[in-house]
């Protein structure tokens, strides 16, 4: 069994981006991070994005509207950023407070600045295999982990657990694309799927993104499979200072010995998401500058 080291692969991508950005003369790429309210997970994600941007040499601007901002005011803010020629990428941190319409906010972004890849046009471009758009960061990170760990999907059965718009659906579309490294035969499972285990047992490559702690057990896995565990779940654990431990959607200790390659949690898909956001920002800058 080989561990797919997301920390190492993300660090490689960040180092490559730093080299690229250092060589840009004049204005450097700029991302604006909009965080509405004080959701604790969002505070830590935005900090991490800010720090990674600084490490690369990407300028980041943080805008912190109050949790009571109206939809109209948020959209006005987005319109202003869309019109600002010094801004290459805009990220509106999810989740927004409940009174706001998140899909409408994402659609309001100029598609060519939507580095998080949630605008309808960018999701559509993934379906059309049009590389000019932005792929959402987590599915893009999964494809990069597969490519950089030498996993070619061609001719292989890829089973995706979960059909969310941020992970399951886009990663299934990417695995299905005709391009080199992809070309998989894809099955998607969701809460309406009958006998999930009979499908996961057929997977040469299993991508688990359902948000259920340690759902995938040894009896659900074909020996020799490659497993990408996207799940990040908090499980109560009295032995930890925080009172919980993080676990994936896969029961790692029993499943990993059966696999040929597997991502750990933490340290697998998680670090890739921020790296791919930075990659998208540099892509937006280059398209903007050309
Ligand atoms: P989500 O929006 O809650 O979607 C979960 C999907 O799993 C849904 O499609 C749901 O089916 C399906 N599902 C739930 N229980 C199931 C079951 N028992 N059998 C089969 N399918 C089932 O979650 P998400 O946003 O995609 O996130 C999934 C996990 O990935 C979470 O743990 C999240 O924290 C993690 N995540 C990690 C990263 C990262 O950077 N590493 C990024 C994003 C998400 P229905 O559609 O039928 O409801």
Word description of this protein:
39% of the residues lie in helices and 15% in strands. By secondary structure, the protein is of the alpha/beta class. It folds into two domains: 24-110, 3-Layer(aba) Sandwich (Rossmann fold), CATH 3.40.50; 137-270, 3-Layer(aba) Sandwich (Rossmann fold). NADP nicotinamide-adenine-dinucleotide phosphate binds at residues 138, 161-164, 166-168, 189-193, 196, 209-212, 230-233, 269-270, 273.
Number of strands: 11
The CATH homologous superfamily of the largest domain is called NAD(P)-binding Rossmann-like Domain
Return the CATH architecture of the largest domain: 3-Layer(aba) Sandwich
Under CATH, the topology of the largest domain can be stated as Rossmann fold
Number of helices: 10
Radius of gyration: 19 Å
In the sheet with the most strands, the strands line up as 1-11-8-7-5-6
**At the first level of CATH, what is the class of the largest domain?**
Alpha Beta
Low-confidence stretches: none
Bound small molecules, deduplicated = NADP nicotinamide-adenine-dinucleotide phosphate
Give the overall pLDDT as a whole number.
97
Structural class: alpha/beta
- End-to-end Cα distance, whole Å, is 44 Å
């Amino acid at each position: 069994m080989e561990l797919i080291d997301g920390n190492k692969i993300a660090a490689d991508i960040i180092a490559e981006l730093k080299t690229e950005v250092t060589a840009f003369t004049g204005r450097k790429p700029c991302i604006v991070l909009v965080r509405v309210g004080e959701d604790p997970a969002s505070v830590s994600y935005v900090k991490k994005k800010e720090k990674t941007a600084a490490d690369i040499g990407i300028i980041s601007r943080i805008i912190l509207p109050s949790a009571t901002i109206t939809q109209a005011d948020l959209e006005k803010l987005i319109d202003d950023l869309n019109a600002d020629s010094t801004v290459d990428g805009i990220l509106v941190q999810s989740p927004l407070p409940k009174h706001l319409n998140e899909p409408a906010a994402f659609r309001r972004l100029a598609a060519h600045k939507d580095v998080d890849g949630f605008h309808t046009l960018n999701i559509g471009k993934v379906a059309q295999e049009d590389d000019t758009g932005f792929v959402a960061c987590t599915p893009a990170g999964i494809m990069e982990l597969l490519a950089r760990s030498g996993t070619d999907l061609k001719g292989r059965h890829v089973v995706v657990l979960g059909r969310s718009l941020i992970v399951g659906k886009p990663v299934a579309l990417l695995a299905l694309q005709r391009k080199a490294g992809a070309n998989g035969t894809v099955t998607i499972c969701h809460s309406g799927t009958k006998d999930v285990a009979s499908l996961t047992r057929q997977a040469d490559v299993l991508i688990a993104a359902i948000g259920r702690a340690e759902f995938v057990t040894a009896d659900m896995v074909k020996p020799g499979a490659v497993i990408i565990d996207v799940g990040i779940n908090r499980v109560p654990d009295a032995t930890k200072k925080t009172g919980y431990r993080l676990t994936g959607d896969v029961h790692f200790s029993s499943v990993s010995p059966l696999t040929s390659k597997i991502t750990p949690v933490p340290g697998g898909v998680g670090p890739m998401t921020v790296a791919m956001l930075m990659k998208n920002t540099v892509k937006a800058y280059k398209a903007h500058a050309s």
